[in-house]
């Protein structure tokens, strides 16, 4: 017969082993849940490279839209056509000859996703219609709280990522001289070209 002390020892061992296994599984599950898919896009410009980290979790529709244009090569050869120092630099819609490019249909405004228009963040440009964004985007040169979503007050401008490399390039672009061309104000005198836009990591 198994003694009472031996039986108690065996039961204790089983409990300890089971406890460790459950803990290991919990840690493994927590690690899986923390992992979030992220992608980075490098904008190679005539003034240097800018790397943007996209936030698919917060802005799924906007990120998918932006990546569609990237994968199609849409941004290659476009310019930053609207530059205002201490505000933002805007691009993604015009060629160096100021010809507007044809786009896909507009997307829904995701400005209520909690992301803010802070320095270095990238957001979608749009008209007065909140759901009119297509391909044009802008990088905030400073914190621009008036562009943020406010419930029952302002539809805001949808932020979908942030600059992780090349903020010095953004600063340099923001400082260029601008003029009026084709009836548009704040256009760089010397075109600031987006040579290419490519996904550089996942």
Task: Give a short overview.
The protein is α+β, with helices and mostly antiparallel strands and 202 residues long.
The strands making up the biggest β-sheet line up spatially as 1-2-7-5-6-4-3-10
Number of helices: 3
Mean pLDDT: 88
Helix proportion range: 25-40%
Q: What is the CATH superfamily label of the largest domain?
A: Cyclophilin-like
The percentage of residues in β strands lies in 25-35%
Total individual domains: 2
The dominant shape is globular
Reading the helices and strands in chain order gives HEEHEEEEEHEEE
Radius of gyration: 25 Å
Give the C-level CATH assignment of the largest domain.
Answer: Mainly Beta
Oligomer: single chain
Strands, total number: 10
Euclidean distance between termini CA atoms: 61 Å
The CATH architecture assignment of the largest domain turns out to be: Beta Barrel
What is the fold named in CATH at topology level of the largest domain?
A: Cyclophilin
Low-pLDDT parts are: 4-20, 30-34
**How is the biggest beta sheet arranged?**
8 strands, antiparallel, barrel
Structural class comes to alpha+beta
